[in-house]
Amino acid sequence: MGSEHVAAAQPLLIGLLLLWSSYSKFRDPEQADRTALPRLVGESRAKPAYQTLAAIEALIALALLAPPSWAIEAVAAAALAVGFTGFLVYSKVVVPEASCGCAGKSAKPVGYRAIARALLLLATAAVATTATAGWWSAGPALGVLVVEAAVFVMLSAELDRYWLLPIRRFRIRLSHPYAGTASSTAPLAATQRRVLLSPAYRAVDGMLRSDIHDYWDDEDWRYLSYFARYDGRRATAVFAVPHGDTTPESVRVAVVDETSGLTLYRPTVLATTG
Amino acid sequence: MTTTMDRRSLLSRAALGATGLVAATALGSLAPETAFAAGSQFADAGQPDPNFAEGLITGRNQDLLQVQGSDGRMHRIQLTGVTSVWKLRPTTIDQAKIGDGLYARGVLLPDGVLAAEAVWVNIVNLTVAITSIARSGVQFDHHGQKVVGHVQSGTTAAVYNGTPAVSDLSMLKVGRHAQVIGAWRPGTNEIDIATIYTSN
User: Fold this and answer.
1) Residue B61: phi, psi to the nearest 5?
2) Among partner residues A207, A214, A252, which is closest to B17 by beta-carbon distance?
3) Which residues of chain A lie closer than 8 angstroms to B133, CB-CB?
4) Please, which contacts does A142-150 make with residues 24 or more away whose CB atoms are closer than 8 Å?
5) Across the strands, what pairs with B135?
6) InterPro entries, per this entry (chain A) (predicted)?
7) Which residue intervals of chain B are DSSP H helices?
8) Hey, which of A72, A138, A197, A200 would disulfide with A8, CB 3.0 to 4.6 Å?
9) CA–CA separation, A191 vs B154, rounded Å?
10) Could you tell me which residues come within 8 angstroms of residue A32 by beta carbon, excluding any fewer than 6 positions away?
11) Are B145 and B124 within 8 A, CB to CB?
């Protein structure tokens, strides 16, 4: 298996990659709006430019895949790869939020992986220009393509969900980084939700002026205080939420004047207001 | 500290009904006009709400904040002893620092200062996909943007399938969509997670 065979094998990989890229551009031309194309060629010309590029990709791909093998096909692919690399670098510098639009749906902005992939495509195309025979005569050198294809997959953000996320899911199933976070103390968000759903909250809702100001636990209860206005004066509304009883009616409330320490209002028969 | 303890114990006793009720007129005062007599101005149609402000804190003089709104407007916001401040959790007014972003609700005073009743510092509400979970943080994809969420033990809560919040984060899964309420760390793409809503 000489370097000549390896070079001869490249057009197969390049051709398949360009077909994939071309197909996804034809399937969803609206992706053009998310790339840097509108900035480069103008809003109205972005979609036609995107589709023209797809057509060029398809043409080069088919020329590479079908006999006879001419060096000019690989040169065209190399030129295309140079164009891709330049466009991606332009995207990253000028329109950093633009997506690559290379292949498949991805809202991800152009990253180093996309540029590395374009450079790899350029490298394979450059190797292919030295080929003297068609890929069908490459023989065992086609095995090299498996390794190259794997690298292409790893550099493709569009394909992460097919291999990277499953690997991460599997790793987390073995040992979850947050396995020990469960605790018997209810988080504040849970208490707040119980307060919001309680008749006690409905009874004083119109008086509340602030968000939660303070909260604390004491024996069987958790307390939440809000600033309120009662009869035109400043007051504090304090809710008592029992740890044990989870019924909405178990939440109690009082409106307190903190300067005098007197309770101004305490709804009593809460169940009927619910 | 003692005053906080005294205050809390007074409020606790009041909430549980251990203190006497003073106002016999309590029921009469429940009329809506009483509840809304606090003096808030109502917004004119098409005009910005006068009782609300948002932006980045560009200056702080004692408890008066200088805030630059995202629409270019400048706000002056007065924090008081009766302002609630949220910064990942309910906290104290000294936590609003220069460089922080905030939302404030309160009463606009005649001199143009907003007397804040509630302030939310650096609060963010993101719809994301979970792309990776590690001890150092949870990685999110927020419409193509990478955001790192940090778990704060004792504060971070998770809501699975709409059930009540729990502190157990071990049911978070890679690939799931989630909504995250958190506190942004200014100048970074990192947040501290307050509550994460997802499915399990």
Assistant:
1) -120, 105
2) A252
3) 168, 172, 176-178
4) A142/A9, A142/A12, A144/A6, A144/A9, A145/A9, A145/A10, A145/A12, A145/A13, A148/A13, A148/A120, A148/A124, A149/A13
5) none
6) Methylamine_util_MauE
7) 2-15, 32-35
8) A138
9) 14
10) A38, A46, A47, A49, A50, A51, A101
11) no
Please report the sign of the dihedral spanned by the C-alpha atoms of residue A199, residue A200, residue A204, residue A205: negative
Query: Is A259 within 8 Å of chain B by CB?
Result: no
Interface contact B170-A183, CB threshold 8 A: no
Tokens of B145: 């943007």
The DSSP 8-state label assigned to residue B99 in this structure reads: T
The answer to whether B24 faces chain A, any CB pair under 8 Å, is no
Phi, psi of B149 (to 5 degrees): -105, 130
Domains of chain B: 50-121 (2.40.50.320), 123-198 (2.40.50.140)
Mutate to test the interface with B, among A253, A266, A268, A269 (most CBs of B within 10 A): A266
Asked if the Cβ–Cβ distance from B12 to A240 is below 8 Å, we say: yes
Report DSSP letters for A65-114, one per residue.
HSSSP-HHHHHHHHHHHHHHHHHHHHHHHH-TT-B--SSS---PBP-HHH
Q: At what angle do helices A112-128 and A142-155 cross, to 10 degrees?
A: 160
For A216, other C-beta atoms within 10 Å of its C-beta total 16
pLDDT by residue for chain A (274 residues), tens only, comes to 577 788 888 889 999 999 999 998 888 888 888 888 888 888 888 889 999 999 999 999 998 888 777 778 888 889 999 999 999 999 888 888 888 877 766 667 888 888 999 999 999 988 888 877 778 877 787 888 899 999 999 998 888 889 999 999 999 999 999 998 888 889 999 999 999 999 999 999 999 999 999 999 988 999 999 999 988 888 999 999 999 888 889 999 999 988 888 889 888 755 444 3
Paired with A237 in beta bridges are A226, A255
Residue whose tokens read 């639009």: A101
Tokens standing for residue B194: 């307050």
Q: Which residue has the tokens 């939302």?
A: B103
Amino acid identity at A83: G
pLDDT digits (tens, 9 = 90+) for B12-32: 888 888 776 665 444 444 444
User: Alpha-carbon distance A218 to A242, whole Å?
Assistant: 10
CA distance B50 to B42: 7
What pLDDT, on a 0 to 100 scale, did the predictor assign at position A217? 93
Distance, in Å, from the CA atom of B114 to the CA atom of B103, rounded to the nearest integer, reads: 12
Coil vs helix vs strand at A189: helix
B134/A224 Cα distance (integer angstroms): 33
Quick check: B195 contacting A, CB < 8 Å?
yes
